[in-house]
Specification:
10 helices; alpha+beta; rod-shaped
């Protein structure tokens, strides 16, 4: 027989069941021994009591070794079954202890060895009881055998249910680990996307505008206008430095946490389009910080595009307060472009519109771009003042 070692996954419940079985065996052995001694002559008691003591010692050794899964416990189990079979045949008074022997066999064996050991226990008990009836009562044979079959079927069902439960628990644990890994990966990807948008809307746009101003200064130097361009470039670079420090330390943009929203948007837009006009419609009210942040970044990105590419004579920003939303419209009468022909993002740029759209849509809003070559551009954003889950 090839035994399957007892796995350590039974847990505390199985441990308590084993303790109950072992205590039951001890109680039944003592009761059966007392019954046997009281019903038989002292000459017969000596051998039966010695065999019972040997069975107890073998049971204890087998139970301890099998529980710890240590040492060659298989010979001990075979010796226990042999000693038990001899005891129950010689002294049928010990037949009640068959239940504990059966459960010990099923707990230490797996597969067909468990059925063989359980069947041997039932057969020895049947022979002992049949001998007790002077070989006349067939029920003494059928009873232990039927009980052995029923216990085997019940134990098999319990083991199958336990295996299914362990598999379900393992599947749930695996699914939780996979979900946690997916959430970590999604969080990392979202954080990278957020940082890329922050860098584009602040540092990249400001550096591009500063570069244009410095190039203009170089072309017009030493004309008086070069001084103005140099001052503007210096101011933008200082602003870029502040934005970079804010980004590194995860600080909010200046003017975002307090102060009127329209003033923060106007300040952000005038860094790139000094002559932009700002209008407010509706009744101004408090806007959640995440909406203020998104509106500020959209304004910075759109204004930077106007200053870098539009060549506009006029530009305007309109902040609107609706009953359930806040809107932002930026218009310029510049050169315009074909929204459908915007190149994919690359090292040369192209992240602005995508970043603006992602920011707005993450908060349940909508961003639209209307532009025609030679006829200017309108960028319109609408953000709900309620959470995306509450927005129809």
């Amino acid at each position: 027989m090839t035994p399957a070692p007892k796995t350590p996954s039974h847990g505390h419940l199985d441990g308590r069941i084993d303790v109950v079985v072992h205590l039951g065996f001890a109680v039944l052995m003592v009761a059966s021994g007392v019954r046997y001694v009281m019903r038989h002559a002292p000459a017969d008691n000596l051998w039966a009591v010695a065999l019972a003591a040997a069975v107890c010692a073998l049971y204890a050794a087998t139970a301890v070794l099998a529980r710890r899964n240590r040492g060659p416990w298989l010979p001990w189990m075979v010796a226990l079954l042999a000693a038990w079979a001899a005891l129950v045949i010689v002294a049928p008074s010990f037949a009640w202890c068959s239940f504990a022997i059966f459960f010990l066999c099923r707990s230490v064996f797996r597969g067909w060895p468990a059925y063989v050991a359980g069947g041997a226990t039932a057969a020895a008990t049947a022979v002992g009881l049949f001998r007790l009836s002077d070989w006349t009562d067939v029920a003494m044979v059928l009873g232990p055998l039927a009980a052995g079959v029923l216990l085997t079927l019940i134990y098999d069902k319990i083991e199958r249910d336990a295996a299914v439960q362990r598999k379900l628990l393992a599947d749930v644990s695996t699914a939780q680990d996979q979900l946690a890994a997916s959430e970590r990966a999604a969080g990392i990807a979202a954080e990278r996307e957020r940082v890329s948008r922050e860098i584009h809307d602040t540092v990249t746009q400001g550096l591009a505008s500063s570069l244009l101003l410095l190039e203009a200064t170089q072309r017009s130097w030493p004309e008086p206008s070069a001084q103005d361009d140099l001052l503007k470039a210096t101011g933008l670079l200082r602003r870029n430095l502040a934005d970079t420090r804010s980004l590194v330390h995860e600080l909010s943009a200046p003017g975002l946490e307090s102060g009127p929203l329209e003033e923060a948007l106007e300040h952000a837009a005038r860094q790139y389009v000094p002559a932009i006009s700002v209008h407010v419609t509706g009744d101004p009210r408090d806007v959640p910080p995440e909406l203020r942040h998104t509106l500020l970044r959209v304004t910075q990105s759109a204004a930077a595009n106007i200053g870098l590419h539009a060549e506009a004579r006029h530009a305007s920003l309109t902040l609107g307060y609706l009953p359930g939303a806040v809107t932002l419209d930026m218009y310029d009468d510049g050169r315009g472009f074909d929204p459908g022909a915007v190149p994919a993002p690359s090292e040369a740029g192209g992240y602005g519109l995508r970043a603006m759209r992602q920011r707005v849509e993450q908060l349940g809003g909508q961003l639209s771009v209307e532009s025609t070559p030679g006829e200017g551009t309108i960028i319109a954003a609408q953000l709900p003042l309620r959470s995306p889950e509450e927005t129809p």
